[in-house]
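Researcher: For the record, we're logging two predictions in this thread. I'll number them. Prediction 1 follows.
Model: Prediction 1, sequence and structure:
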Amino acid sequence: MALNQHKIDVTDRVVGKLKNGELELFLENQSIGICKLPDNIQMNLEHHFEAEGQKIYQHVSTTEGRDAKYTDCDDGGWC
C-alpha cells in the first residue's frame, strides 16, 4: 500500500485575525500562517464598523437606566 499526496482547496474555511499589523491565518483552530499588512492598508467596512489603528470597532446601541429592559415597547405596551 502506498500513500499518495493530494491538494485540497480549503480557501473558504480559512479565517484571518488581525494582530500587530499582520493577518494571522487559521484553519479551524490550527494556525497556518501570517500575511503581513502594509501600514497604510485601507479597509472597506459595513456602516456600523470602523477601523482605527490596528483595531476594528463595532458601533452598537445600548440602554441606560433602571428600567432599560422596557425601552423597545410600543404605545400599546407590547415589547
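Researcher: Logged. Prediction 2.
Model: Prediction 2, sequence and structure:
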Amino acid sequence: MGKRADFLAANRGRRAPMPGFVLLVRERGDGDPAMRYGITVTKKIGGAVIRNRMKRRFRVLARELLPVHGVAGADHVLIGRSEGIERDFGLLRGELEKALHKVMSRPVGETPPRRGSSKDKRKASTGSARMGAGESAKP
C-alpha cells in the first residue's frame, strides 16, 4: 500500500489492538484476491533508527503470516506502538497471529461495540448536584 487514501480507508475497517501494535483490516471489495499490507510508525515512537527497526520487524512478520492467516482481498495495516520497540520477536509473532484470528472471527459487517463517548459521560455527570466545601446534603 502506498497511497494515504488506502491507509485512511483501512482505518474504517476492523481493528485488533495488541500491546506492540494495532492491526487494521478492511476488505476492498474490488474482486482482487490479493492481500496488501501497510506499516505506520510515527515519530512519537522514536527516532529514525527505532522507527526503521520496527518497520523491518513488521515487514518480516507480515510476509511470514499474512499468506497463511490474512484476509484475501483485504488491506492490512500495522500501526506501531511504543511497547513494540523492544518486544520479543516471538511475542510479536504470536500477537499478530492472535490479532488476525480475532479479526477473522468477526463477521464482515459487524463492528465491535463502542464504549460510551466522553460526551455521553458529561451529560450523565451534569445531572447530579455537586457539593462544595462546608455544604451538607439535605434530605
